[in-house]
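Risk register update: the risk of archive-format incompatibility is retired. Evidence:
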Amino acid sequence: MRPIRPRLALARFDLGWIAAVVLPLIGILPTLGHGMIDSADGPYHVHRIYTLSVMLAEGNFWPRWVPYYHLGFGYPIFNFYPPGVSHLGGIFVLTGLTPAAAFAAVAALAWIVGSVGTYALARNFLPGPGALLAALLWAYAPSRLYEVWHQGGLAQMMSAALIPWLLHGMVITAYRASWRGVLISGFALAGIVCTHLPMTYITALYAAPAAILLPAWAARGSDNYRRTFARRLAFTVGGLALGAGLSAIFWLPMALELNYIRAAQENTETVAYLSSRFLQPGDLFIQPRPYDLTNARPDPALTVGLIPGLFGLAGLVALLVRRKFALALGLAAALGFAVFMQLEESLDVWLAIPYFRQLRFPERLLRAGSVWLALSGGSVVLILPKRWRADWALPERSKRAPLRQHLITAFPAMLMIVVVIAALPQVYGPGFFIQMDGLDAQDEIEFEQENHVWGTTSYDEYDPRWGNSIPLPGTITDIEKYADDPLRVAPYWLDVIQNFPDLNAIQLDTATHRIITTGDRAVRFHQYYYPGWTATLDGDPVDVYPEDVMGLITVDVPAGEHTVTLRYTGTTAQRAGTLITLLSLCLAGAVVVVARKETMSLAPHFSGVSPYPPSPLSPQAEKGGARRAKKSPLRLRGGDLGEGPTNRPALLVIAAVIAFALINELIITPHTGWFRVKSPPDDPAYMEIAVHQPFGDRLELLGYTLGNDYTKPDGALTITLYWRPLREITAPLRPRVHLVNLGLSEAWAVSEPFFTHGAVGSTPDRFFSDRHTLEVYDWAPPYMGRIMVQLLDGITGEPLRLPDGSDHLLLDPVIRVKGSGTPATNRLDTDLGGMVTLRCASIQPEGDPNEQWGIDLYWRVTRAPG
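Archived output:
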């Protein structure tokens, strides 16, 4: 391959960039104007956004510790959870938005950032229509829509949106040794690190090998391979190093202070929960169904998607046909890894990579996999013959073969329409919204008490390690004071009450108190100890240390009346990280000055990576193209096909997306039942077998849908139960599903969800679905079994009773467990009534051979006994 050579810059802006901005509009509009999407993580992020607005207003531009989190005991949330999106949302709040509106704005921005980034990345390899198709596939990937409507992980949304920008910068540096590429990859990596740690870890698995392989491949064909490779490797690694420096303000103290929190301790439930989140092979490429609006807890499809999967496969085939083997192999390997990691067979890999199990959710890799799927899916446009694809580089008003040009324009347009139609059942989402306006610190504390999510985290993983007990609801009073003074740090109220009048405290301001004591004493404050806290006693520095019970900040106060002030001033690691980031910003400014001298397009296309030959046009067409370029340099850039702007198709895409988004929002959503289902509350549309069995006076099992009626040892069985509340549910419940033998003496599989609060708040006007995957034990015999359902009280663990007094329900279908070993040899061949044959028997001791022996009989049913 020839050495890389500079290309002419675009003299006219490519409208494809504007089209990439507009593409997510169809999905964005349904999420706006109805309140806050009721998603799993959404409320957490809204509270964090409000917190950042408070901190920024106080002049704390990079907060680490939030004093009112964790029931007012304080929490180092932003020292360990990247504050990037909360920071951005806090800025939006300071401009006048509510925290919920700021959440929606940041989510929409992440959608647009990822769409444009995918377009930029794809334009390195594909012509404009193919790059737009890739951006569309990314914007409407099932994993993206699941994130918006169900997970609500704002940080994960933005971090995943920056992955294509990081790859785009790495491609530029690898093929061009470009300073602009260094800036793009550096700021993109810093954004990923400062928004979401799990996505940072996943990105590193791809970026680390790409940093070596891309320059190694791009340097092929150069006159001095070793020198060219070394230079481009240095630029590529330099971009990553710049990103590490820019994000040091977060990752350096996070890494050095990890031993200060409980997250450093191994959680025994991590592997079990990880295993419960794996997908079945049949679920990977299914087409998501329309949401049932009566379902209070819909079962979302965690899937690559049928249409994106088909497009991706077709695109890989097209790349192979066009002899772009390296690109096809790279995309297939990257996408294959993301898909493989969704399956239970990948568990050993999860456990082998250090700390990878802490990600807990295998579907996180689909966020990165959507980039590879988008690139391979966009490559499907290469199916067109070369002479047809050449017309993309011709002037928009060319009279040459007008019919063919219309067909060429229509082909990617039809593909894009198919992608949008396939995504529409998820674009609407379940449509559940909640109101979160007028937030304050008191609301956050009450949110913690109600949901048992301390410090807006699900696992309380950032709890400081000092102390032996964690305060629970009921250990805090005067919650209403936090509404007006959220950053207040007061003496521990219980000590003041129990020791009055020997100990008294008068609040002077947010962090200052007058302490009056009759004797020397250690005064505890209602705040966890953490390195970085400082105190003054009557203006002089005094030691701060943790007490042994709860690890609260403690200050030794002598007898008399004294003024104590507490402030969180930070640690050495935090100050070092901030300094490195500031120095990296100065370095980035110097790189900006150098990068301005480069003449490079917004969408660079290099002969080393373009899937098109250097001279795709016929000699006559090349001459004509050269003449047109002389007359108007706006038309073509360089000689490679696909480099020129594709403004006409992009303009059509912009108009079509805006028009359909408005029609969808104003007509289809409010006035039709298209792409949606609304079942009666007692008859779910997707339920196949009705049961209508009450469990106590709380829930009725309406019925179920069985994925399959057979399985095998070490296999899986899927079933979706449909429940309807008989009254409003105020206490947690926990379903338990078993695969048992016919004698109910043995269970071969069990499914019991980890979280028990899903039904709380449900009312009889709606049902909710409950999907279970039963992992069959590897020792299960080849036999027939039944599915047994129980419903347990989430607090006491006692099963609810059925009307007949039983504590369980056996579902009707008989499940066949197929044998996976060697068939039993026919040694007895004893026929019983022409229906059952006893083939063989084996006898072996069980325990003491003088006391007990066991016999295994191997039967074969030759005719159903009825």
